[in-house]
Amino acid sequence: MTVTTITDAELQPKDYASDQEIRWCPGCGDYAILKAVHKALADAGAERERTVFVSGIGCAARFPYYMSTYGFHTIHGRAPAIATGIKLANPELDVWVITGDGDGLSIGGNHMLHVLRRNVDVQIVLFNNEIYGLTKGQYSPTSRRGTKSPSTPQGSVDYPVSAGAFALGAGARFVARSVDTLQAHLVGVLKRARAHRGASFVEVFQNCVVFNDGAFDAFTAKDVAADTQIHVEHGKPLLFGAGKNRGLRLKPRKLELEVVTVGEGGITADDVLVHDETNRALAHMLVALEPPAFPVALGVIYCSPVPSFEAEVYAQASAASAGRGAPDLAELFVTKEGTWTVS
């Protein structure tokens, strides 16, 4: 009998899929994100036995069941804390956090803040559909003002959270965006996130066909996408439009962006800003852009690596134990120093 061994480099996207029945609503954007993750891992030759997916609660949280890797389905909002523990216990593991706008930015906002500021080397993929799906359509932290839902029957009066602005404000060193239906783009963004050492935050605009269908049509519909999306790439001009003749520049004597058309009013290609993904101030301006006045920025918006949390923790522990020799647990137990008697 001949046994064929498949190396990680030969794995196909289907090899990262589990045998579990996928249970999302027909037409849900989650299917496309799952497909993109399978493709990104296959392209990278990821080792399944060294890959871990951690989720909280919500529609997105079913994700670990559909991966032929290790996984944890944890509790509401706490996936970043569990992922931090996993990465500290074994820094060699490739750890992914799968969350939603409700799970990650409401009850989990505190944990999201700290995993980003600590710069733990995990990939965080936040599915943003601007609604609570699993609990039947209540408004979420990213829902727009006026959103009518079972919990806001007259329309939400809240100002929504910008996931990108939150991540940047928390100190994230990698912030990116994509759309569930932009398969090639999403796969590329996920691969960049995985290659980044430190916390990678990827917001995916994901359509909920049942409770918030068409929430992003203003910039994802095919007939408007060219004029309402700007795909940013490091070192390349911030151009968009069907003819790539519209761009972004800084207003003269003002620290704000404006849309200009190359060839009109004396505007040339040299007037258009060049994307610098290491520029945090520019990243803040890009995540704030919204239609109809501006296009939505997609791609790697900010990337400026620093040493990861677990790398520094291990380095600190190594330095503290340098020159002391191997610890002796038995000696520690019997030593009189630091012990006392309770009478």
What do these coordinates show?
There is one protein chain. The chain has 343 residues and is an alpha/beta fold. The protein folds into 2 domains: 8-236 and 276-310, Thiamin diphosphate (ThDP)-binding fold, Pyr/PP domains (Rossmann fold); 238-274, no CATH class. The protein is built from 11 helices and 11 strands. It has helices at residues 30-44, 79-89, 101-107, 109-118, 163-169, 183-195, 217-220, 225-228, 280-287, 309-321, 329-334; strands at 51-55, 70-73, 94-100, 122-128, 174-179, 200-205, 229-232, 239-240, 246-250, 257-261, 296-303. The strands form 2 sheets. An 8-stranded mixed β-sheet has the order 2-1-3-4-6-5-11-7, with helices on both faces. β9 and β10 (257-261) form a beta hairpin. The longest helix has 15 residues, at 30-44. It is globular and about 85 Å long. The termini are far apart. The mean pLDDT is 94.
